[in-house]
């Protein structure tokens, strides 16, 4: 047999193999899912991530024809839930719905994380972003970020700010405020945003940086006031509140971006079907208006490839902010 024959035969065999894989993928996309899907949320019930997950899961169940069941697996700044999904079978029946604390912040600020985002996860789809806000007690005699900086400077070594965990976005935002405003607020990590918010309302700490949806009732009751909001434009929910950039603190412009990831090596056809399903839900204006816009959430529709690029870009940017802030997590 000639060399050319062997080469031609190999090329044809490879082409046939790729065709079979493509056919298998197409068939899988048509039949998936055939059983319930578990959607892991690495936070306790009741928070923004949990609320978003349950709203999305209900609509996904309707469109996919199988139950999408939310399972809360909180702890270690989302590491416990994320690690469980990273180790799950890559069959499309275990998903992770979380925010960028998991896929951007943890790998940058935590000294040792059990998972590697690029190695252990397949980005499926972004859902949207929720502005994080600078919230202080409604009775505090300040009306702007500038006022707050002056107030804190006048009380050195006496005030603190809360976050929902060491290495979280609010931890970084508070550290950036200290650096940029020249204050010396002490960081107090909490097990979630709710207890931090409660201590701001009660006067135990000066401020925190919660997601807007979780504090709207406190703002309406004037128990909290919002001094600045993240995002490139003001939020519909609080149009009178300036952005961090408008307030003169553009480096604090950090939002909570939410997305769905799957274990690495999940079939591409499954990823594409899930992405298409989620994008279709986000294209439903009534759903977005009822469940997302009213809470200040802005839809964010990226392809799996774009999501992966976003993670890489945000990780680079976060490293720069961490270096600027001097944040250290032991």
UniProtKB/TrEMBL annotation:
Gene3D superfamilies on file: Bordetella uptake gene, domain 1, Periplasmic binding protein-like II
Record field: transmembrane: none
Domain of life: Bacteria
Keywords on record: Signal
CDD domains found in the cross-reference section: PBP2_Bug27
A Pfam family reported for this protein in Swiss-Prot or TrEMBL: TctC
InterPro entries: BUG (IPR005064), Bug_dom1 (IPR042100)
Signal peptide: 1-29
Family: Belongs to the UPF0065 (bug) family.
PANTHER family: BLR1237 PROTEIN (PTHR42928:SF5), TRICARBOXYLATE-BINDING PROTEIN (PTHR42928)
Record protein name field: ABC transporter substrate-binding protein
Organism: Cupriavidus necator
Organism ancestry: Bacteria, Pseudomonadati, Pseudomonadota, Betaproteobacteria, Burkholderiales
């Amino acid at each position: 047999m000639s060399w050319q024959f062997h080469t031609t035969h190999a090329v044809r065999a490879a082409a046939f193999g790729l065709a079979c894989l493509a056919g298998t993928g197409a068939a899988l996309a048509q039949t998936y899912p055939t059983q319930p899907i578990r959607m892991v949320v690495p936070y306790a019930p009741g928070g923004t991530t949990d609320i978003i997950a349950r709203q999305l899961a209900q609509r996904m169940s309707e469109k996919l024809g199988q139950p999408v069941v939310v399972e809360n697996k909180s702890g270690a700044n989302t590491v416990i839930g994320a690690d469980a999904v990273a180790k799950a079978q890559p069959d499309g029946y275990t998903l992770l719905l979380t925010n960028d604390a998991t896929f951007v912040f943890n790998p940058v600020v935590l000294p040792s994380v059990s998972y590697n985002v690029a190695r252990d996860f397949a980005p499926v789809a972004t859902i949207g972003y929720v502005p994080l806000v600078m919230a202080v007690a409604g009775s505090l005699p300040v009306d702007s970020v500038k006022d707050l900086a002056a107030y804190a400077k006048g009380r050195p070594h006496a005030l603190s700010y809360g976050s929902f965990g060491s290495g979280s976005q609010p931890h970084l935002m508070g550290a950036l405020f200290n650096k940029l405003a020249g204050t010396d607020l002490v960081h107090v990590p909490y097990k979630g945003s709710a207890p931090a918010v409660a201590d701001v309302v009660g006067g135990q700490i000066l401020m925190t940086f919660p997601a807007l949806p979780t504090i709207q009732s406190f703002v309406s009751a004037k128990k909290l006031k919002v001094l600045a909001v993240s995002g490139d434009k003001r939020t519909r929910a609080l149009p009178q509140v300036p952005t961090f950039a408008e307030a003169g603190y553009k480096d604090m412009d950090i939002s909570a971006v939410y997305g769905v990831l799957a274990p690495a090596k999940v079939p591409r056809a499954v990823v594409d079907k899930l992405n298409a399903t989620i994008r279709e839900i986000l294209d439903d204006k009534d759903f977005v208006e009822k469940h997302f816009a009213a809470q200040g959430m802005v839809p964010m529709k990226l392809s799996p490839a774009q999501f992966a690029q976003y993670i890489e870009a945000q990780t680079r940017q976060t490293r720069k902010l961490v270096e600027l802030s001097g944040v250290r997590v032991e």
